[in-house]
Amino acid sequence: MASNRIIREQFSEGTTVDGSRIQGALDTVEGRINTIPRGDILPRYAEQTIHLGFMPGGMGLFFPYPWGPLYNSSPWVVAGGLDKVVNPVRIKGCYNDNIASPATGDQYVWSTGIHHVAPCIVNELHFNAVTDSVFINALTDNAIHLLISVNADGEGQDRHLNSFEAVKHLISDDAWPFRRTSAAPTADMAPAHTETLAGNIISFKNLGVAIPAGARVLYQIVIPKSVGGWTVRPYQTIVPGMTVHYLEEIV
Amino acid sequence: MKHTFNRLARGVKLQVGHVYTAVASTLENLTAKAGTADGVVIDQLAAPDGPFTIHLSVPNFDANRPATSIPLVLPAYQDDSIWTNDYAGQDTLVFKIEDVGFYFDSHDELAGIGAWNDGDASKAYFGSLSDYKLEVSILETEQLINNYLVTTSSRYSTVWSNAIPAVAWETGLNPQTYSEISAELSPMRTYILRVVAPDIGETYTLALPNLNIWMKLSAKLVPRDVHDPGNGKYVQNIPSDHNGAVQTTPITVTSPVAGDLIKADAATPADTYDGVQTALGKADKIFRDKLRGGYNIHSELPADENLTDGTAYKVIAVPMWGNRNGDITSPNVDTQPYVGSAPYTAMIVDRRVIPISNNFTVHHVIACANYQKPIAPPSSTFSHDVGVGIGSGLRSDLHTYQQVAHLRWGPYAAAAHEIDICGVTLNDTLLDFWEIVSVPLVEITGEESQNYGQQGAPFFIGQARSETNSRVNVGVDGGVVPPGVAPLTSGQESFIEVRWGIQDTIGLDLLGPSAIIVPHYGNWVYIIGKTTLVTANQE
Fold first, then answer.
1. Does residue B391 share a domain with residue B353?
2. d(CA B233, nearest CA chain A) in Å
3. Are B263 and B301 in the same domain?
4. Nearest to B129 by CA among B152, B147, B104
5. Interface pTM (ipTM) of the complex?
6. Residues B123 and B208 reside in one and the same domain
7. Which of B179, B247, B357, B362 to mutate to test the interface with A (most CBs of A within 10 A)?
8. N or C terminus of chain B with fewer C-beta within 10 Å?
9. B 348-367 residues with CB below 8 A of A?
10. Contact assessment for residue A176 and residue B486, using Cβ atoms and an 8 Å cutoff
11. Threshold 0.90, pTM exceeds
12. Which one, of B276, B133, B275, B144, lies nearest residue B197 by Cα?
């Protein structure tokens, strides 16, 4: 005997069959096919793409924006405000053994927040660190952190309570070069760029992170200061880009 | 199509038409007719709209220019009748905006952040969030391309406006969203998102680092693009293995004929027709297996598809030249990368790299340049050069590019590709002045579309495995004779690259201090097209 999904009747030898049962089954089919619910459709997600990116800012001034400090410590808080700091370390777990504390160094965060009103599935996060002859970084220091976290619901600003959904600490740089050896493309696109695309493109794929409705999600990238190729102004050594692909249900 | 089955009236003898005709019609709709107007269309769907969210990123918004505007157009698909009729047809999309959201990086504290030229640059200012009120509005206007010639702010009507009170930030609502806006937006209109922070320079010189704004919209689902040149439908770079055609395997019901006894369950092996349960069970099984359709992440199609309308609108907003700490003019253009030596006749180029995930078909590329005043640099020597390409080589051997769209134009001289020219009053002293142009897709002669000027047919972008890396020919910038050329990326594209070049053939340092080479908050490129619905599984 077949197992029905939408038809609430079963017709078989030896059972009573009348017009009402047949009509009921047909009504069910008619109703279902005229108003097919979202759950009956297998491919029911539309992919959304977030892309952020910028050339390092500052016309000769070398400002860090939009990179901000990892530590809300005295160099980064206006005098008299330290006692109001809720998150002295903004992101837990971003430890570099060569940057033990704000006293010995610093790290910078590029933080992007999205309030997802509807539930979604975050599938991919990419971070580009493009380098060339102007923005110079060998990218061999294994010191980048990538994180996706959800702010705690109803617990104010304490980021230690964040739920971490995807995290990769101290990424192995040699696993993520755009290409093993930088070489000019066999064909370029217009307009021509004087520099060949190089650097690292770090990709998290197939994440399948389910984000509930109403979640405030942070996509954050952490880079070090004064570590190897990351100079005292590390934000000037790469052209950063971040891409997030997430899925939302049809409405 | 909607179904209306015959009613089985009381006392009527059960006949073939009561059951089998209804089931046959259902199965035909679900299987054999998939991909046609008689297949499963949005009239039958409880959720007939596809969401799309436009994410806008201003890397550093601060009190040195406490207001900005971001223009936006949402053109109809290339094959929409609006392009030939100049009025919306019954299939022309109407967009509904539901949410607008905001975020800036306050260093995870209830604090403002000092701007770059404040005495406490990039530091957290506790107590200063009271200066972070934002006045936000979405403005609508007709377009120059439809002969609307007014360029001043009198041209706008307001679709939505709101003041985000400082107290919202002070209570920790960061990010925050304004929902249930339910305003309709139209194709063939220009929209302006205007953001003003009137108090941000009142007490200190403050900043909103990494200001992110997103607008969530929806539009009805439509059929996907199919490469069928015999019927006037060309899709560049689509896998030639299937050309995007909907894959169908008809499932049929075998009806009794005159004299047969209609049976309840499966007919006996000796019978040549289905019982009532067997017939109804065939429709039930399709729902039990769930309706299918659309591509997987490798641009492959399922063996059997059920959906006709399974494609949603998609917009990728790409910020270009967006992280300057002021206007770039002749006196400071020497600070820009790639500028070369005086008089700076080399092209300065900004680029974004966007790794691709699921495939989509590009229908339009839109570029928005801001001169911040009606007078722009001279078009005889000054030019913008915007290109969109797909690239291969991401952790692979073949590193090459395939052009998707390209336009080089001088200010206000984009000819048929000029969509709109519009000034936006930001406050008492600040003005944005936008030029919005269509960057045409590469063309094959005879396969063009007439949209905002002439451009090439829709361009498919998608990852592939061996079955789907053989692709339909593509055009070239400015056109090429049929049959076009094979795409250079050979179906191995893994990222999109967007470039925006700026050049003056006399020299960027000779334009004078009043000519805006790059505006404080940069320019924008939008990649607009169709994306098929997908499953959560990326395989």
1. yes
2. 24
3. no
4. B104
5. 0.96
6. yes
7. B357
8. C
9. 349-355, 357-358, 360
10. no
11. yes
12. B133
